[in-house]
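Hey all, sorry for the wall of text incoming. These are the two entities for the joint prediction.
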Amino acid sequence: MKIATFNINGVRARIETLTGWLSEAEPDVVVLQEIKCQDEGFPREPIADLGYNIETHGQKGFNGVAILSKLPLEDVTRGLPGDDTDEQARYIEATVVGHRALRVAGLYLPNGNPQPGPKFDYKLAWMQRLHDHARQLLATEMPVLMMGDYNVIPEARDAARPEKWLDDALFRPESRAAFRRILHQGWIEAVRLRDADGSRGPFTFWDYQAGAWQRDDGIRIDHVLLSPQAADLLIDLGIDRDERAKDKPSDHVPVWVDLDA
DNA sequence: ATGGTAGAGATTCTA
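and here's what came out:
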């Protein structure tokens, strides 16, 4: 089963980019971030026509996440637990039943800039809530995938030019430490299973500005975290880097895993 | 040191 994460940066503005990739890559399950629309504005029809069930958690203008699946989605939950006053649509979770049941979480972690400030405080508080919930997910002993745009550059080798990110919320020590604290519960970063050495990259995001793509001035901020039970099922993984060179691209590219599930 | 781009929706914010 092929399961992907893709920050689409506006699903209505980029519906042809999305359907083109879905047709080519043929993922079974996709978590989307930054749909930037409300549930009723989501372009369901062209995606349903490709055989996907659709569950959305949107809001007006910003943020918004969704899960697409060729298999039925069960027990869908919306919003990250831990703060009933949080109105930002950044988290969705569902069970996908193939010949094995998987729990899939799609998340859009707060950017946190500028830092320091209230947005950075919100990012760190959100990461603490994710940490608490991630522990509960591991305790289920199901195969779990916790994937999405983490807005965290884990290490210097995850940036083409780490020096320019030193004062950015994506690379601050507090953000990186919070990400590590989640990993240390026992999650496995899929990409690093196959690329564990010290070489630079691969990247998943290139800014639209200043020719970042042309200079390969990228960062790796879209991550797939696997529970041990999910990691045991891993067959293959990839980053669809070529999507960034196509017409009307998102600034992020898809990251996917293939599991024996 | 600055500005460079993009989407949504309102004349600015978020990234």
